[in-house]
Amino acid sequence: MEWLSFEGWVLMVISVCAVCACKALMVKREEKGVEREGEGFVIPRGSWGWPLIGETLEFIASGYTSRPVSFMEKRKSLYGDVFRTNILGKAIVVSTDPDVSKMILLNHGNDAFIPCYPKSITELLGKSSILQMNGPLHKRVHALIGVFLKSTSLKARITRDIEKVIRLSLSSWMDKSYHVHLQDETKKITFEILVRVLMSIGPGDEMECLKREFEEFIKGLICLPVNLPGTRLYKSLKAKERLLKIVGKIVTERKMATEKNEEKGMPNDAIDVLLRDSGESDGMQEHRLPLDFISGNIIEMMIPGEETMPTAMTLAVKFLTDNPVALAHLVEENMELRKRKVQSSEEYSWHDYMSLPFTQNVINETLRLANIINAVWRKALKDVKIKGYLIPKGWCVMTSFSSVHMDETNYENPNEFDPWRWKEIGAAANSNIFTPFGGGQRLCPGLELSRLQISIFLHHLVTTYRLSAQKDEIIYFPTVRMKRKLPITVTPLEQ
Ligand code: HEM
Fold it and tell me: In the record, which residues are listed under signal peptide (predicted)?
């Protein structure tokens, strides 16, 4: 090896020594991890990876491939369905076992786990956000919102509103010569519906202003947690202050109007629900929710719906346009419903949309394959023992939904978009091997609203236009989205 100088040799020897030292340290860290065994429960096997960065690089790299679940699969084959690792600076137990994940989502009885988010998210949310709060207050707010979003009165009204927003949006595509980026269009639709449900705001300056500030706010959800003037986090926190002012004004005006008119009747939106609740139904003394708490939570409730919904709508179209047989089947089913409605001159009901079996199967399959929320994170408040495993106090735990959804023991040919599989799975759509909306105490309260919105969107889309999508790719990190925002061309069916 004449090409290597003396300095080169020295550098090489130092590098080899450094790598060996790191590896030795890693082995030591791995040994340390299994030390705390007791009463037949073991800390899951796994690797801590490299000092400081752990296995973060491999985790992120897998997110940029077409199979993000490969990170989990590799470790699952080495260490079992529940393993430990170190990613994003945290010691973490990953569960790909549906039974273990279920126990975690159920909070292992009570008070065992709390949500665990990256620092930038916790800074932006604030402690009294529904996404972070715990205990009786969380139960109260979760139940209030859940009951409202599932109420029959909302279902009837929101079906009309969603139809209106979607029809208007579809007709605006004519001005764009029928070429649209679907991801952008579905974002607009979703935002409009979300602000109607949460605070009864319709199109106009106020909504545009909310949209601008909200977009600025959520840019900081995944960023360096440094809050200094000029940083991303700082700008997002400032946008949140402005949002709080706008929403705070709406909440205060509503409170005054409610007191004046002593309005009772059904609540119109989430603001009404939170304003009217006295807390007495919990058997507690009257304890109204403070106005700033309501404003903050209204903003934070927009976060889980704002990105997930447009992604689900866009990916449903992506999977369907990649699979012409499924698309033809969906068109046939929806055309039949449309014909029935035209003949009877009846309005569509919530039930009409939700009882289209193939369309519901397409939605299930889209949610399974897209894994829009691929996992949820919790932190153990105490040592927790589940199914022979010990999750030590203070550790994070990740329930990986995508590993379960993409496991061939649960779904045959899991990488294939196969809506017909749901004909057989049927009731299992609600089991613990299908959890796109999470489960347990934090099960998504927007579950039914989401399904309704996707159903209405698909119905009007395929009964108004013929579709063709351009080639595009799904990106899985940091969130699921289309690389080119899914450009599609639509041709009106009645031309
Ligand atoms: C396809 C669309 C959606 C998906 C895949 C989805 C998924 C999820 C998941 C997995 C969770 C559980 C998080 C956890 O356990 O930490 C969740 C929670 C939540 N979702 Fe959704 N969601 C969707 C749409 C919506 C919509 C439209 C809304 C708003 C109306 C909404 C509001 C919420 C709220 C408020 C929570 C927090 C519940 C709590 O912590 O008590 N979601 N969602």
Answer: 1-24
